[in-house]
Write a structure and sequence with these properties.
Layout lengths: L1 E2 L16 E7 L2 E9 L3 E5 L10 H7 L4 E5 L21 H4 L5 E6 L1 H12 L4 E7 L9 H5 L12 H7 L3 H11 L9 H11 L4 H10 L1 H13 L7 E6 L6 H6 L6 E6 L6 H4 L1 H12 L3
Parallel strand pairs: 1-9, 4-5, 4-6, 6-7, 7-8, 8-9
Antiparallel strand pairs: 2-3, 3-5
């Protein structure tokens, strides 16, 4: 198991000018994608409550020797907001960018998208780092669902959208506060930034749709497991005050080559709470032969 000390420092949510942003049409929608650097490809996938902007410190570091691809997930951030298609096995950006193989670094719902891609296209993923969220249908999923903090998994539909309309910041503060080790580490600037993006038309509907698809994701993941364990090297990182080593325990149900790691002093929001540790842990994993 790898541990590093917690580091502090403000995170910028603005990508360097060397990163190019574009809308990429794929799977019946358009995804907002940032691309920077050169070398072997690495894809960074965010989760709920944030966008691809969360990855700025890691993207800047990896762009020194990688082609870094950072999409906003379907319906999130500056991506289009389609009415359907939120099962996690939907993917297509790499084909449009003509990238044959890539490493994946994922967080939260990004874990689910990344695992589904790796399970379907096993010869296209070189390494897989998953951070602080379980996989539907994998390992102790049913026990995890019993955690009362996860009530939002079943929160959705037209009435729920009416309840949060105009109150997006209040709803999101609940996530940022309850799932962090120290809420103040999720900065006010970042809260304003993400709340504005999630208040865009269709954004909250898309977020609820991501959770509503978990039952289908669980069924899909069980089919992937039936086809065999992943053999690609996997780094399973958990925030010390969140999933911690449970991440590795979950992934050992799905992959045969799992390395365990902990982001010290952090809850769920690893790039806000301890970005330097995440950069060091992921860099070390990607640099291995």
């Amino acid at each position: 198991m790898v541990r590093v000390k917690r580091a502090t420092g403000a995170q910028s949510l603005i990508y360097p000018k060397a990163f190019r942003a574009r809308q990429i049409a794929t799977n019946g929608t358009k995804l907002y994608v940032r691309v920077g650097g050169s070398g072997p490809a690495v894809v960074l996938l965010h989760g709920y409550g944030e966008t691809g902007d969360m990855w700025v410190p890691l993207a800047k570091e990896l762009a020194r020797d990688h082609t870094v691809v950072v999409p906003d997930l379907r319906g999130m951030g500056l991506s289009a907001k389609p009415s359907s298609g939120y099962d996690k096995k939907t993917a297509g950006v790499l084909n449009r960018l003509k990238i044959a193989t890539a490493a994946l670094v994922t967080h939260d719902i990004g874990n689910m998208v990344g695992y589904a891609f790796a399970a379907q296209y096993r010869n296209r993923v070189t390494r897989l780092a998953l951070i602080d969220a379980p996989l539907p249908g994998v390992g102790p999923w049913e026990e995890i669902l019993k955690n009362p903090l996860l009530w939002h998994f079943r929160f959705g539909g037209p009435d729920m959208e009416r309840l949060v309309r105009g109150r997006e910041r209040i709803y999101l503060d609940r996530f940022w506060n309850e799932f962090s080790a120290k809420p103040k580490r999720f900065s006010e600037a970042a809260r304003r930034h993400y709340a504005k993006l999630y208040a865009r038309p269709g954004a909250m509907h898309a977020g609820f749709a991501q959770f509503a698809a978990f039952d289908q994701d669980a069924a899909d993941n069980k089919a992937f497991l039936a086809a065999g364990m992943l053999s690609v090297p996997v780094l399973a990182l958990g925030g010390e005050k969140s999933f911690a080593t449970t991440m590795a325990a979950v992934m050992r149900f799905a992959a045969s080559n799992v390395e365990e790691g902990v982001v010290p002093g952090s809850g769920h929001w690893i790039m806000e709470e301890n970005p330097n540790a995440v950069v060091a842990l992921v860099r070390a994993f990607l640099d291995k032969d």
